[in-house]
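Technical note accompanying the year-one report. For the benefit of new consortium partners, we illustrate the data format agreed upon in the data management plan: each record pairs a sequence with a structure-token string. No post-processing was applied to the example shown here.
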Amino acid sequence: MITSDFKKKMTDSWFSYLQSQICKEFEYLEKNKVKFSKRIWSKNKKDEGGGISYLLTKGKIFDKVGVNKSTVSGIFPKKFRSKILGAERKGRYWASGISVVAHMRNPKMPAIHFNTRFIVTSKEWFGGGVDATPSYEDNKEKKMIHNFLKEVCVQNRKNYKKYKKWCDEYFYLPHRGEARGIGGIFFDYETKDWIKNFKFVRELGLSFIDISKKVIKRKEKFKWTKKDKEKQLFKRGRYVEFNLLYDRGTRFGLNSGGNIDSILMSLPPEARWK
């Protein structure tokens, strides 16, 4: 029988490895002329863990990209416990995960988001997803991204249609009556068969690297105008609204004593509203 401690150790190690690989690949896309800065943080109680945040800004490809990995534990505030599976009574938790948000310099490229996590309360489960938010919809690009994600799901016997629908419903701004982007996949509360779910999470992480490289290589030489940039900044405003009003990761981070700068890493360097 696989112990909970073994699962924690394996997922923590994987997320650290994936973080290093993503940073390496993204620096390579910048031709190693722009590097990530590194920040290590700890919760107020040192025995409750912390994280490592990598941030790259003002590149030729990336306007801003953050790659965060954290492993934390503790007790949720009482008002938040009912929102987390298995934390309703005692509120105790352990969580490890990685989150990536890439805001591109070129308005013709979509913002890309990825995260995966493993959470332990009185229950234990995986969650995560990949999605894209373009300023200009590109049907060929949309199809390419969704085909990548569908293939990972099919290979791991995961329900792509369910995950896609969940993503469409999750990344929606009800106060605007519009989707944040073109979707992708989103999943949560994957509690059964840890070995298969861990394999799926690993393969999804590697696929995210491939998807990012495909999107960037295809459009890195696309020309853009001031008008294009204005449209991108307006779209980023919608991104900000979602992440501050509805995002689960933001709420989880704030209620688990996470690092504020790392939690808000997802926000773009510049945005605009009419």
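Partners are asked to follow this layout when depositing records. The first helix runs from residue 4 to 29.
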